[in-house]
């Protein structure tokens, strides 16, 4: 059941079969329907989740308007680290953009997993680093790349993006209007054809 997560973990740290099987004891599985929330603002985030299948949109609401901060896909980790670490109410929403399967571990179980096998502490650090690197990439891209460059980079990583995510959320993530995104998309595809 947890094979994708087990294989992912083994690709980062050397684990015996017994150590790998600890995943079954500490992680839980959740199937999300399209538009279903994994986390909603106003709650305390007490988990870290691995996306085994599907995509999750990260957004917050400012002045009544949704602001998409990120879109995470298969083999990504999602959480609200601020809320998770400090046990505070979160302002982040995590919503499935398509049917999704996630494996999640509650904070208490994560600490127990670290006690059961200290190799998972190394894995936890690597996982946190991966999330931090992603946040840094987004911040740098927003501050220095033009929307067209951000679009091209996103499309390179996820060529099937428009089949999976509604255009309004992609536009919101890129910081442009849906109409601007349509123009950018048309320019890019015209260049690719010529």
Distance between the termini: 46 Å
Q: What gross morphology would you assign?
A: globular
Per CATH, the superfamily of the largest domain is: Jelly Rolls
Q: What's the β-strand tally? A: 8
- Here the CATH topology of the largest domain equals Jelly Rolls
CATH class of the largest domain: Mainly Beta
Topology summary:
Blueprint: H1 3-12, H2 17-20, H3 22-26, E1 28-32, E2 37-39, E3 47-53, E4 55-62, E5 65-73, E6 77-78, H4 81-86, E7 93-96, E8 100-106, H5 107-116, H6 119-144, H7 147-157, H8 161-164, H9 167-174, H10 178-193
Helix pairs in contact: 7-10
Describe the structure.
The protein is α+β, with helices and mostly antiparallel strands and 194 residues long. The protein has helices spanning 3-12, 17-20, 22-26, 81-86, 107-116, 119-144, 147-157, 161-164, 167-174, 178-193, and strands spanning 28-32, 37-39, 47-53, 55-62, 65-73, 77-78, 93-96, 100-106. A hairpin with a 2-residue loop joins strand 4 (55-62) and strand 5. Helix 7 crosses helix 10 (178-193). The mean pLDDT is 90.
Quick structural summary:
The chain is of the alpha+beta class and 194 residues long. Helices cover 52% and strands 23% of the residues.
Main features:
194 residues; alpha+beta; Jelly Rolls; four-stranded antiparallel sheet; 10 helices; 8 strands; 52% helix
